[in-house]
Amino acid sequence: MTDAPDLSGLIKSYDVRGIVGEDLTAEVATAIGAAFADAIVLPDGETTVAIGHDMRDSGPWLADAVAEGLTCRGVNVVRIGLCSTDGLYHASGALDLPGVMITASHNPAAYNGMKLCRSRARAVGENSGLADVRALASRYLVEPPATAPVRGAESTREMVGEYGAFLRSLVPLDGIRPLTVVVDAANAMAGYTVPAVLGTEAGLGELPLTIIPLYFELDGTFPNHEANPLDTDNLRDLQAAVRAHGADIGLAFDGDADRCFVVDERGEVVTPSTITCLVGLRETARELAEGREPTVIHNLISSRAVREQLSAAGAVPVRSRVGHSYIKAEMARLNAIFGGEHSAHFYFRDFFFADSGMLAAMHVLAALGTQDRTLSQMLETYHPYTASGEINSRVDSVPDALARVRAAFVTEDVEVDEFDGLTVEHWPAPGEGERWWFNVRPSNTEPLLRLNAEADGEALMERVRDAVLAVIREA
């Protein structure tokens, strides 16, 4: 028998991601569809799966291939067509179905991939079924499974209007003051979802928003810039347009529009931790008003201000590992009302514990539009500390580099944990010494260490950042 191929480079810890025609072919996609059916869908007692895809040219035929794998194993398929990832999560939640989203998110044009979920948008990751899908798909590439006695049936359903109406029911924007909003869709899915949700193209009523569109034409070759707002180079056009139009706010979405970055009226980038504070405080106030104790999840490299401000407002902040499958699991386990990550993924209990860039954007618009200050004025108390952002370093040996960091920085006057990588914190009471922390964690797939540092002041942050990087990169 031919050895089964190694799919670990394609089916990763959280999703499927690879180069179309090389790692990801129709044959591989069909095997993944069949493996998803046999490893997760059928054992869960499900009979139908929702499939959607983003604007990449390979999306429709990859969706066809996944559908072939599913229907071959007797699973029905509902095709919802073009959608954002949170649009697929909405379909999974509203229809109570497992789902497959064909997308490579923010990756360059040569890539595509998949995000899998159980019914009601429950995450499928390495420890919650994805490893089983990988193993079975690998086997099916050598020995394809037999066709089920009754093949699954296919149907189609248009969901974008229902998606928009659902989001508007969670965050009504009808009564806010008029706002001018520049949106950079990066030729990706926000060019489809923003007119549907914030405009009238899906048949919803008009909102008091003047939308100034940048790159709304769907084009998976990304002719203007990559659909990755985590890289600040990709925010320059948005920043310039906000200033040029005198806009109240700018929004930038990634390729599958499940992440949203915010730019204030000055054209300055607002950190995702600041948005976590803003939205977390809104959701905390709502939960308290309904007589419940609010829990908010944040990953461990979010700003220290997140836990401080949420605690002060009456929430219970809970720290999570980095990665959407971890934070979604914690959200569900604790019935948390909201969760935020440094990467601008924002999760909502009312949205099936899943992430939605559009819903996060609507919260910011609602907060801004129900008071008279500018966005920068409204947010000025939410970011008291200075963060480095994530800095990657390629190393010869991850264990050796971590050992060097421990030897250099773990002393009696710091707190240390290894919850996700190595976190070192020196944070005495105000006036009792320098306050800083950093986290160093390994990449799941490459010989990289990722550094995030924060301090009470820019000069101190830079000193800590540079000291840690020098140890990590020591030859």
From TrEMBL:
Q: Which InterPro entries match?
A: A-D-PHexomutase_a/b/a-I, A-D-PHexomutase_a/b/a-I/II/III, A-D-PHexomutase_a/b/a-II, A-D-PHexomutase_a/b/a-III, A-D-PHexomutase_C, A-D-PHexomutase_C_sf, A-D-PHexomutase_CS, Alpha-D-phosphohexomutase_SF
* DNA-binding found in the keyword field: no
Q: Which Pfam families match?
A: PGM_PMM_I (PF02878), PGM_PMM_II (PF02879), PGM_PMM_III (PF02880), PGM_PMM_IV (PF00408)
**Alphabetical UniProt keywords:** Isomerase, Magnesium, Metal-binding, Phosphoprotein
Positions of the Alpha-D-phosphohexomutase C-terminal domain: 390-469
Q: Which domain of life does the UniProt lineage start with? A: Bacteria
Check the record and name the PROSITE patterns matching this protein. PGM_PMM
Segments forming domain Alpha-D-phosphohexomutase alpha/beta/alpha? 12-125, 177-267, 289-385
Entries under CDD domains matching the protein: PMM_PGM
Instruction: Give the protein's cofactors.
Output: Mg(2+)
* Gene3D superfamilies in the cross-refs: Alpha-D-Glucose-1,6-Bisphosphate, subunit A, domain 3, Alpha-D-phosphohexomutase, C-terminal domain
Q: Which family does it belong to?
A: Belongs to the phosphohexose mutase family.
Report the protein name in the record.
Phosphomannomutase/phosphoglucomutase
Top-level taxonomy: Bacteria, Bacillati, Actinomycetota, Actinomycetes, Micrococcales
